[in-house]
Amino acid sequence: MYAFDYQRPAAIADAVALLRDLEEPKLLAGGQTLLPTLKQRLAQPGTLVDLSRIPGLSGIEATGEGVRIGAMTRHAAVANSDTVRAIVPSLAELASVIGDPAVRNRGTIGGSLANNDPTADYPAGLLGLGGTILTDRRHIAADDFFTGLFETALEEDEMIVAVEVPRVARAAYRKFRNPASRYAMAGVFVAQGAGGGLPCAACQGDAEAGGGSDRRLGACSGPPPATAGGRPAAAQAAAGVRYGLDCACDRAGGRPEWAMTALFHGLSAFPLTPADDEGIVDTDGLGILIQRLVEAGVDSIGLLGSTGTYAYLDPAQRGRAVAAAAEAVAGRVPLIVSVGAMRTSWAKALAREAEHAGAAGLLLAPLSYTPLTEGEVARHFRAVAGTTALPLCIYNNPGTTHFTFSRALIAELAAIPNIAAIKMPLPADGDCAGELAALKRETSPGFAVGYSGDWGAAAALLAGGQAWYSVVAGLLPKPALRLTRAALEGRVDEAEMVNAAFQPLWGLFRAHSSLRIMYEIADCLSLPVGHPPAPLGRVDKTAANAVGHALDTLMALPETAPSAR
User: Fold this and answer.
1) What is the pTM of this model?
2) Residue 167: helix, strand or coil by DSSP?
3) pLDDT, tens digit (0-9, with 9 covering 90-100), for 104-152
4) Do residues 2 and 41 lie in contact, with contact meaning Cβ atoms separated by under 8 Å?
5) Are strands 146-148 and 151-152 parallel, antiparallel or unpaired?
6) Does residue 487 surpass a pLDDT of 90?
7) Which class for 362: exposed (0-12), middle (13-18), buried (19 or more C-beta within 10 A)?
8) CA dihedral of residues 411, 417, 423, 424 (deg, nearest 10)
9) CA distances from 91 to 80, 81, 245, 266, 280 (A)
10) Does residue 535 have a cis bond before it (omega within 30 degrees)?
11) Whole-number Å distance between alpha carbons of 240 and 283
């Protein structure tokens, strides 16, 4: 480290005077970029001007238009601010994925913006949101502030004092992060203004990968940016899926893949989670299962549901599974991660981890050893839904949780921001149409109602269900997709034909549990999934042989559908 002088002014005017009068001064905010460069002798300032004693440079307050954030406000404060989460939740989400906890608790928003590192997160957010940078002498629109790599519109003796961000209708941020530093290799922020209109996006890339420009994409005309690896910007895709933003940009003249199907609609395939007898997840095996689902074209992948044995995995292994699945998906199909846990704090932590890994949505079941009351479940869901910006699906599975959601509770939860859908069990009386009509009367038009219970999926979809949360699709996605498409498109004869071919499997599911039978299906397909988690065991030889015969029946399904009714 080179020698330098040190000044610690007590007022903004004093700091500006030092910038004007001293030779080679450098402002010190959080120091997360400056200090490492000093240690490596990559910078040689004459004087460090420490801003930490200047009053009024930190803090968050609501304004008539949005939120004002002091330049010295730490990333962690932005991420955890109730004010930011209430007014611009996407900015809190962005702050929560900056670096690691040490960086978030030292780095500042003003320091990040003034540095304008191409791998930083805030520049994309300020551009996408249409923010304004306030200095000691003027207001600079974000579009005018960022001028190039590590370059801004700031004068040599000018300093940032605050940032103002307007309220928007909806927005989201996604990035491909460096696995070591968590810096953005490519990042995309998508927002829709409070007045409506087309969304706008801003992105930045890894300078070492040839990117590094912060830019406003306007109305998203033209192709979306590519990541360092040359893949389409799945970060933008995930953001669009998350909030249902339509976008004018495309890759080949049509709408982007992620805009084709809304999250929590269509076929959601739930794969097994391959693991050894100690519960250590086989990430390579999981990658194989995920790749099969992506190639088949499922509408979403439900990771770590009941079929994914989430209740049998410790938090570390659940994290391994999420990271491996996100890597295998690579943004091509929305990933919905189950975050059910016995404690609210655990579920919140799992939700944050899923969001950081790249999940597009969450699935939450009310797990408990002691039976829960409706008030306790409502508080649990409010807490978890407020932890991230991801849309959340209610997991109504009384067979495993021993809690049944009343319609009044479903209506209450459906009104909570971020709670966007429910995964229902099959109705005891078989009246899916009646149940759907009642739920639609009590929830908003955008609230999606889907069903589990594979043997009743055809009836549920034909009655108007919007999604099939499918066990069997985790290993047999193609026939499950055929059934889903036929039912959703009203091709009753074809749906019934495919469902009839599934009947031998449905019988085995009901007799032995779908989870146990899925392990036998995997064996028949020579897929590496290991064994059911102890104390669960394998079915007997008779049932195992019956699985093979059931698959033969399904494989004999004719390719040509019967004539439509």
Assistant:
1) 0.61
2) coil
3) 999 999 999 999 988 899 999 999 899 999 999 999 999 999 998 889 9
4) yes
5) antiparallel
6) yes
7) buried
8) 0
9) 11, 10, 17, 30, 35
10) yes
11) 27
